[in-house]
Write a structure and sequence with these properties.
The chain has about 200 residues and is an all-beta fold. About 0% of the residues lie in helices and about 30% in strands. The chain is built from no helices and 23 strands.
Length: about 200
């Protein structure tokens, strides 16, 4: 890896912290004060902003953008083409306590990991929080500052605290009209049990 971010295929800033056993894909760039913990995996052509924390064993697909100050904890998986906004937090513990009921500081065996997946193409807006165990569907859009306390369907637009669905969005992120057609690029969609999918060609 090289220290020249303008001409490098793969770039890791000198002020980033990369623990042993981290995998960084070809063409990815990791900026200052980002911390990738042991066993984390970053796919090809990703961008990791300043001050990002990527915890132990986190798996990140290709072409993901993780903006400054985002926190992604152990047990989270990002599929390809995912956007994580500045200051967003993806958690992993649904019953957090610092100590046990007996007053002993909790260790790694004293809590239950709850995994979360953010599916392909989804976006989690700035300062949003995804509570552990609530998967975000493909191409969904979580608004800035939202607190996600339930699963988000594919192509859903959610916002608020707790997050509520406000409509549907296209792969290009524009809202769909009542006929489930994009108001910008014209793509059409059909409903499924998991949200939306592209409508069959007619």
């Amino acid at each position: 890896m090289t220290a020249d971010p303008q001409h490098a295929a793969t770039f890791v800033h000198a002020a980033a912290v990369i623990d042993a056993g981290v995998t960084i894909g070809e063409g990815s760039r990791v900026w200052a004060r980002a911390h990738l913990r042991e066993g984390a995996s970053l796919g090809a052509e990703c961008r990791v902003g300043e001050g990002v924390f990527i915890d132990t064993g986190v798996v990140i697909g290709a072409r993901c953008k993780i903006e400054n100050g985002a926190l992604i904890f152990h047990g989270v998986r990002l599929e390809d083409d995912v956007f994580i906004g500045p200051g967003a937090i993806l958690t992993n513990d649904r019953l957090p306590r610092a100590s046990t009921p007996d007053g002993v500081l909790k260790g790694r065996d004293d809590w239950t990991l709850t995994a979360t997946t953010v599916a392909r193409g989804a976006s989690v807006g700035a300062a949003a929080v995804v509570v552990a165990g609530n998967d975000v569907g493909a191409w969904a859009l979580v608004g800035a500052g939202a607190v996600v306390t339930g699963p988000v369907p594919a192509h859903a637009l959610v916002a608020g605290n707790p997050a509520r669905q406000l409509g549907w969005v296209c792969r290009c992120a524009l809202r769909l009209d009542d006929a489930l057609r994009c108001t910008g690029c014209g793509r059409a969609y059909a409903t499924t049990a998991a949200g939306l999918q592209p409508a069959p060609a007619t």
